[in-house]
TrEMBL record:
Pfam families: CUB. Keywords: Disulfide bond, Membrane, Repeat, Signal, Transmembrane, Transmembrane helix. Residues 1-27 form the signal peptide. It comes from the Eukaryota. PANTHER family: CUB DOMAIN-CONTAINING PROTEIN (PTHR24251:SF37), OVOCHYMASE-RELATED (PTHR24251). Residues 145-259 form the CUB domain. This is CUB domain-containing protein. PROSITE patterns: CUB. InterPro entries: CUB_dom (IPR000859), Sperma_CUB_dom_sf (IPR035914). The chain crosses the membrane at residues 358-382. CDD domains: CUB.
Amino acid sequence: MCDLTSRTKTLLLLLLFLLASSPPFSGGEVAESCTETPLEFKCGAGEAAGGGGPVLVVREAWIYASMRLDPDSLPRCHVQEYNLEYKAGSFLQYINKQCGGQTECKFELQKHTDLQRREDLKKYRRGALRVVYDCVKKTDFHRVCGSEVNSQKGWVQSVGYPLYYLGDPVCTITLRVDEGQHIQITLTDISLREDAQPGNKGCRDSIKIQENGTELLEKCGVTNVPITVTSKGPVLNVTLTATSKLFPKRGFLGHFKALGCQTPLAPADGYMSYRNATHAEFWCCVHHAFSDTMTRRRVLECGDRTQTWNDTLPDCVDLEELLAGGNITESQYQNLVNGTTVLAQAERLRQAHIVYDLVVPAVIMSVLVLGNAAVVFLIIYCRKGVLEDGVRCEELESIKANPEPPDTIDNEPCSV
């Protein structure tokens, strides 16, 4: 009994430690209620308001029709995420307006939306509300204009969110991940002025997402569903353009994450020679080798679904130290240094095949091209010589027919 109590205390302490060391955002908590029941949110219990504590950010907000488990007795509604056929609509813009950026909030569908003015309000009765949200610390938002964010995931928002947004000058935040990775950014709240300037069909204020000068998205006004953009490379620019220095709308908010495997740290006494979206190649320095395979080269492959590497990357060991410590023999040391191991021979053979398959055909093609060029040159040269000989013969015939020969006559023989 004492052991059980001790184990219970240990588990509780471990649980408290995990809660205290939780990441900036958890990946989405879920709140559910019936359409007639208020949704209540509370972030940062016990923390002073206005500080750097967590605030509410909403990822998704959906209405599911006719999902009451027991409409007569149960006041609670439950929604399975995969029940898409019951998804009747989104109320994301309304809950963002009421609760976005707040520490505590209560949301009522009929009170905080314009559904009461719609004829289809009846179909939402006896339905369910499902909200996916996070509680994010204010200090974890990236909002500084001109900054570059090097992170695998995070949140971005406009300065002043959710009370107002600023303009003049243009505000750009650059997102950067590792080479070989892509960036997926999802804008969960957009609330910008959308009326166009006179003579201009575009937005007066807008948020733009660009990659290498190419515009992937331009949006203004209000969004009621999340908007997701995925880059082709490792860099994205998020830019807010506004014509007023301050405008009383929320601005924008979104979260981003890296797609693909994160680049591993280079091993001790080694380096990375190549990296793309699917593979990464590492080498150990001269007279060093990976401790588990005793080879200098290792290629890692990134899994498409798991987004993890298929192998580990141990540190490189000094072969001279292994020899001095008696861990390898002199013969093994010479084989490793001179590259006479089976793997090294296979690598050299592969390189020899590359030379045979690429270099030799290239040399042969070059010789053929040069040979053909020489033949063409000789043909042109010979034709030119024959033409000159013919001209000289015609001059000789004209001289024989003329009774007054010129001062000098070309005595070069010519066959008539």
